[in-house]
């Protein structure tokens, strides 16, 4: 079984994530995509605004309706800072028959050289890279040991970020059609990102 791992802070999950996950599934011929919220993301300067439980709930709501999507709480369940090297080793030991690839947007492709223990990661897993507005998908500036592990698949430019959703919520604007309706309703009921 070929599984794409779409990791993120998902604070909150939005349609850009879901479109990227679906494009990766089609473009790379994946059997499933697992949506995996980080517990404490290593790359972010600030802690997530929503709790891990709330981010998990929203990921579960967003995965509904796509039979190929599955939420996984492997990083939240493990706790602490979510380093990909640890997650990959855990996934491989729990699912020895699966072949895993990481699905990442263009910002993360450019950031790969900074990933904790990237030289070990590239020995264990491949990446599926997708376009994102504002970021180059040109990999000529990356070391070949990294760029050779990335497969680019077709993606449309989706100008949605969790940052822009949080900001829109903060100013009382509308996030309809930027996130799944169930996620929008969850944010509303739980007063998420209102300040
Ligand atoms: P934030 O603004 O808080 O950083 P984000 O929208 O970047 O949130 P993350 O949870 O940081 O979302 O990203 C998780 C993964 O999804 C990353 O690999 C990122 O590149 C990818 N991603 C997020 N939004 C898009 C998008 N609109 N198009 C393509 N990839 C995306
Ligand atoms: Mg981000």
UniProtKB/TrEMBL annotation:
<keyword id="KW-0067">ATP-binding</keyword>
<keyword id="KW-0662">Pyridine nucleotide biosynthesis</keyword>
<keyword id="KW-0808">Transferase</keyword>
<feature type="domain" description="Cytidyltransferase-like">
    <location>
        <begin position="5"/>
        <end position="167"/>
    </location>
</feature>
<dbReference type="InterPro" id="IPR014729">
    <property type="entry name" value="Rossmann-like_a/b/a_fold"/>
</dbReference>
<dbReference type="Pfam" id="PF01467">
    <property type="entry name" value="CTP_transf_like"/>
</dbReference>
<comment type="similarity">
    <text>Belongs to the NadD family.</text>
</comment>
<comment type="pathway">
    <text>Cofactor biosynthesis; NAD(+) biosynthesis; deamido-NAD(+) from nicotinate D-ribonucleotide: step 1/1.</text>
</comment>
<comment type="function">
    <text>Catalyzes the reversible adenylation of nicotinate mononucleotide (NaMN) to nicotinic acid adenine dinucleotide (NaAD).</text>
</comment>
<dbReference type="InterPro" id="IPR005248">
    <property type="entry name" value="NadD/NMNAT"/>
</dbReference>
<keyword id="KW-0548">Nucleotidyltransferase</keyword>
<dbReference type="InterPro" id="IPR004821">
    <property type="entry name" value="Cyt_trans-like"/>
</dbReference>
<keyword id="KW-0520">NAD</keyword>
<protein>
    <recommendedName>
        <fullName>Probable nicotinate-nucleotide adenylyltransferase</fullName>
        <ecNumber>2.7.7.18</ecNumber>
    </recommendedName>
</protein>
<keyword id="KW-0547">Nucleotide-binding</keyword>
<dbReference type="GO" id="GO:0004515">
    <property type="term" value="F:nicotinate-nucleotide adenylyltransferase activity"/>
</dbReference>
